Amino acid sequence: MKADVSSSGPPLVELQGISKRYGDVLANDGINLAIQPGEIHALLGENGAGKSTLVKILYGVIEPSAGEIRWEGRPVTIGSPVEARNLGLGMVFQHFSLFDELTVAENIAVALSNEWSLSTVRSKLGEISRTYGLALDSDRAVWTLSAGERQRIEIVRCLLQNPRLLILDEPTSVLTPQEAEHLFTTLDRLSAEGCAILYISHKLEEVRRLCRSATILRAGRVVATIDPRARSAREIAALMVGNEVGEVRTDAPHHVLGEMLRVSHLSIPPAGLHGQALRDIGLVARAGEVVGIAGVAGNGQSELFAALSGERLADRPDAIVIAGQASGTMGIDARRRLGAAFVPEERLGHAAAPTHRLSENTLISHAATEVSRSGFILLNAAKRLARSIIQSFDVRTPEGDPQARKLSGGNLQKFVIGREIIRKPKLIIVDQPTWGVDAGAARLIRQALVDLAREGSAVVVVSQDLDELFEVADRMAVIHQGQLSPLKPVGEWTKEAIGLEMLGVAQAQGGAHAL
């Protein structure tokens, strides 16, 4: 997989005047982008800026309305992902496409042409794994692997096809700090061998660590092409959103008061064949503080949220106590009436009904709370409340009261969090509050959660983003294989110590909670 890393010739790939129109919406507007062999090039922009549309065009998923793609100086038409791969493009998507029941080798084989036998895949897998330090056991079933190991399968699957250009979409979103650093080492090595990399991420510090150049999109247009190493993360974020993105303010005077949530010896069996059991969970969240729960995806975060929200019930009432009331066997509406609010990870389909309008989604959420008084609120009142959320949380909507599915991911996330915060709950539990949202939306969401805590609510944030937790949390714990580490003040944690807990190393060593 050698390539000429010299920049004296034409770019490896060049996009010239790429536009994509959907009706009246211009998702991409005359975009120019060039990537040299061996270059690690970042593609940045807030949600809805046009990044996804652009890489789908490059990978042959959708057809541009105008413009030209040049590969090593010659015009090409990329009509499908198969044609993209034949040309030399590989892509690792943010959400993995793997079969849990199959082995590592089988998952790789099904994505390759029929000429690849399973024995050939095993042999090549071992060779690639050794060359790039991507350790994988070819005969392990995928459902037994960590998120980091699953990502390695996706990367190795691409590398076996000898890509000249590798596109990575939010590649560190499910990795521990140690796994992320290992990935960076692999990417540096690929770059040195001549493989170009197009890197999409909202984590600007890692962009500054990895990339030599960055193209920034805003509203479908290129607004800047910069060397990210020469700019601060705040400067880059300002280019992305069009104005300065300040830091989250956490210094407002506040007092930590009584318990709003107590979880005692909570154990719940897995929901399905590959679900994670919760084992003897203990947790306290007090009025006036933000409690952070860190962990790699698949270690019990979704099960913990389901137990705390009432989607799954405990075996006894006192396993979960909300605002002084034993509620382990209560459903969601009963817990909401105690003053609790919940924001699940999946915003479209779980937090919001896709085909319902924002006002209708507000009605669904608030119907069981004090806002309803007699048990329901009128739709007109829900419309007024939805307008207030849209204004207060800077939700950009295509029309006054659109269906939830018509909002970008970041704007829908601001809406569903605002919908819960606006009623000033005593306790709010949020799962992955800024998953896949841009710097501006992330800052607004984090500030709103911190402000809610400073006003006297208890806030529990479950997140895979350690930077986020260090920014907003007062105390933090790590969940690993359904077990929760002791809560400690954020100042007593280091990223290395949290990474070890996330990998289960600290638990295995015994007594390592003192890290």
Secondary structure: elements and pairs:
Blueprint: E1 13-22, E2 25-35, E3 40-45, H1 51-58, E4 66-71, E5 74-76, H2 81-87, E6 89-92, H3 104-111, H4 118-132, H5 147-159, E7 165-169, H6 177-192, E8 196-200, H7 204-210, E9 213-218, E10 221-226, H8 233-241, E11 259-268, E12 278-286, E13 290-294, H9 301-309, E14 320-322, E15 325-326, H10 332-337, E16 340-343, H11 358-366, H12 379-392, H13 409-421, E17 427-431, H14 439-454, E18 458-463, H15 466-472, E19 475-480, E20 483-484, E21 488-489, H16 495-503, H17 505-509
Parallel strand pairs: 3-8, 3-9, 6-7, 7-8, 13-18, 13-19, 16-17, 17-18
Antiparallel strand pairs: 1-2, 1-4, 4-5, 9-10, 11-12, 11-14, 14-15, 19-20, 19-21
Helix pairs in contact: 3-4, 3-5, 11-12, 11-13, 12-13, 13-14
Principal-axis shape? globular
> What value does the Rg take, in angstroms?
24 Å
What is the number of domains? Answer: 3
The CATH class of the largest domain is: Alpha Beta
How many strands appear in the DSSP assignment? Answer: 21
Distance between the termini: 42 Å
* Main structural class: alpha/beta
Measured as a percent range, the helix fraction is 25-40%
Tally of contiguous helical segments: 17
CATH topology of the largest domain: the name is Rossmann fold
Named CATH architecture of the largest domain:
3-Layer(aba) Sandwich
CATH superfamily (homologous) name of the largest domain: P-loop containing nucleotide triphosphate hydrolases
Low-confidence stretches: 1-6, 370-376, 510-515
GO molecular function, one term: ATP hydrolysis activity
InterPro entries: AAA+_ATPase, ABC_carbohydrate_import_ATPase, ABC_transporter-like_ATP-bd, ABC_transporter-like_CS, P-loop_NTPase
Family: Belongs to the ABC transporter superfamily.
Keywords: ATP-binding, Nucleotide-binding
